[in-house]
From TrEMBL:
Residues 17-98 form the DUF7673 domain. It comes from the Bacteria. This is DUF7673 domain-containing protein. Pfam families: DUF7673 (PF24720). InterPro entries: DUF7673 (IPR056090). It comes from Methylomonas koyamae.
Length: 105
């Protein structure tokens, strides 16, 4: 197995469960959930949903670590777009977008 394949497997093993946890959190109605939601939307479409990385400072350690694992997944595994790891991921992330827009109004 090549070094790239080993890295990809390692990143997937950490990133996929973190992504699942963050998607659950993003559906909640808390300040940390809003940050997670905006982080995921930034990965989904950074032009449409720019994300200020300093916002991650407000997360507890577990959520922060999950965000870093998902960022690493998105940057290093490059297997799929972040929303494509879910069935109906486009719909899920558009729901996140609706929630984000409602909270800004």
């Amino acid at each position: 197995m090549s070094a790239l394949e080993v890295e990809r497997e390692t990143v997937l093993a950490a990133g996929l469960p973190a992504l699942q946890r963050l998607a659950i959190i993003a559906q909640r109605d808390t300040g940390q959930a809003a940050t997670v939601r905006l982080f995921l939307l930034g990965l989904y479409n950074g032009y449409r949903f720019p994300f200020n990385l300093t916002t991650l400072r407000g997360l507890d350690l577990e959520l922060f670590s999950d965000c870093i694992a998902v960022l690493t997944l998105d940057a290093r595994a490059t297997v799929k777009e972040v929303h494509q790891y879910f069935n109906n991921g486009g719909e899920l992330f558009e729901q996140f977008a609706e929630i984000a827009m409602e909270s800004r109004a």
